[in-house]
Each structure stands twice: as C-alpha cells, then as structure tokens.
Write a structure and sequence with these properties.
This protein has one domain (14-109). The protein is 0% helix and 38% strand. The protein has no helices and 9 strands. β4 (50-55) and β5 form a beta hairpin. The chain has strands at 14-17, 21-25, 31-35, 50-55, 59-64, 69-73, 87-92, 96-101, 106-110.
Length: 128
Amino acid sequence: MTRQSRAPAGRFVEVAAGGGHSCGLRDDGRVQCWGANEMGQSRVPKMVRFRQIAVGWHQSCGVTLENELRCWGGHPSGALDPPDGKFLQVSVGFLHSCAVRDDGAIICWGSNQQGQAAAPAFETHLHE
C-alpha cells in the first residue's frame, strides 16, 4: 500500500484531517484524499461533487452538491450508513457521524456506546 505523505498540489477551499488520513475539497467540488487507506477511507466515490467534507478514523463523509450525504471507507459500527434527506453539514467522529439536516435538526448514526449518536430533540426556542 502506497501512502502519500504530503497534500497534493493545487487549490483547495476546505481541508479535513482524521485519524490517519486527510481530504481536501477543491473549488470545483472534487475531493482528493491522502494518507491511510486500509479501509477505503481515502478512496473517494467517483463522479460525485461535494460542497463540504469531514473525516474520522476509518471513514470519510461529504455533503454533495445536491445536499445529500455520501460516506466511504469502512467500519462495522454503521458509520457509513448515512440517513436519506437533504443536509447542510456533516461531521465525522471515531465510530459515529452527525449531520445538520436542511430543517436545522441534527441527525447522528453509527456507534452509540457513549451516547454520542443520540442527538437532542429538535426544538424551536423563542428569545424575548
């Protein structure tokens, strides 16, 4: 297995660093990852453009230009099985991930051993 020790050349608009790999988002929506890849975490889905990316230990996720979630890599915790729907942002942890849905609610999936995937209920608070 060949590991790239330096970030690729070119222009990027976002970078995300995980346990053993990193990914950069280019201004045209393409993602390029480098570093560890034993679980496929640096193997970006082909023909998909992203608006935002996040990386964890053995997985990576992104919000596509269509506001859908795509994850790649591998882990038995279910962290690669994002919910359907439209999303604004995603964050990836060690064995779980969370995302902000287009209505502002937080949705989490994957391991919940420490309660990390049990997001609080969505509530609207009015300030006087």
